[in-house]
Amino acid sequence: MSLNKCMIIGNLGRDPEMRYTPNGQAVTQFTVAVNRNYKGQSGDWQEETEWFRVVAWGPLAERTAEYLRKGRKVYVEGRLQTRQWEDREGQKRYTTELIAQTVTALDSRPRDETDASEAVARPARHEAAPSGEPADAYTDLDDLPF
């Protein structure tokens, strides 16, 4: 038996970027900063930040691109995946990403200054479609990484 599951809570480091594969599949990429506080050897409290690259596919990708913005606190659940590609100089490159299955906003959506009548939205929970990502998901993207 095997298990590949990752759960993080943190803040978006930048606005999500949504693109479409040549076959029309939506893919959104964003980063999440996760902070950890600990006591150092000297006894002083220190903070460490770990950055996660997150990728969402299909309807989940469309919803995250629409509703999430830099600074929002989110819960992301999914699996870790490392992929490899060659850059233009022929060097092998690697990246590890969290492939999102669930994305939940944990804070209230900030009011849009252009529409003051909009109420603060409830936390939104978005899950990937049961079918998951397409089998050829990474082969359809041109010249990645994002």
What is the element string, with H for helices and E for strands?
Answer: EEEEHEEE
> What's the mean pLDDT score?
82
Radius of gyration using CA atoms only: 17 Å
CATH fold name: OB fold (Dihydrolipoamide Acetyltransferase, E2P)
User: How many structural domains?
Assistant: 1
- Level-2 CATH architecture: Beta Barrel
CATH homologous superfamily designation: Nucleic acid-binding proteins
Report the sheet-strand fraction: over 45%
Largest sheet: 5 strands, mixed, barrel
| Lateral strand order in the biggest sheet | 1-3-4-6-5
Low-confidence stretches: 113-124, 130-146
Overall CATH class: Mainly Beta
Distance between the termini: 33 Å
How large is the count of helical segments?
1
The percent of residues in helical segments reads under 10%
Task: Report the strand count.
Answer: 7
Structural class comes to: mainly beta
Note the overall shape.
globular
